[in-house]
Write the C-alpha cells for this entry.
Amino acid sequence: MAKFRIKVHVEFVECNDPINQEPTKNNDGSFSMTISEQDAASIDMCEKSVLQTAYPTIREAVSSHLSEVSKKSIRKTHRRTGSSTKLSSIQS
C-alpha cells in the first residue's frame, strides 16, 4: 500500500506590497496574503492570517490528490478486470 508525505511551507516575508487581507493565488499555485506590520506583531492576527491563507491551499491540494487517487483506482480496476474501455473519457 502506498504512503504519502504531506509537506506544508509557511513563511513571513517583509514586503512593500499593498495590504490585502484576502488570500490571492500566485502564478506558482501558492496563495498569499499581505498584512500590516501591526497584525504581523500579533500572535492572534498571524495565526488567523496563516489559517485564512492556508485554507484555499489545503482545499486545492486535497482535491488534486483525491482526483489522482481516483484515477489510479480506476486504472487498477481496469487492469484487473481486463476491461478495454478507454480511459481518455474518464480522464477528461
Observations:
- The longest strand covers residues 20-25.
- The first helix runs from residue 37 to 40.
- The mean pLDDT is 87.
- The beta strands are 20-25, 31-34.
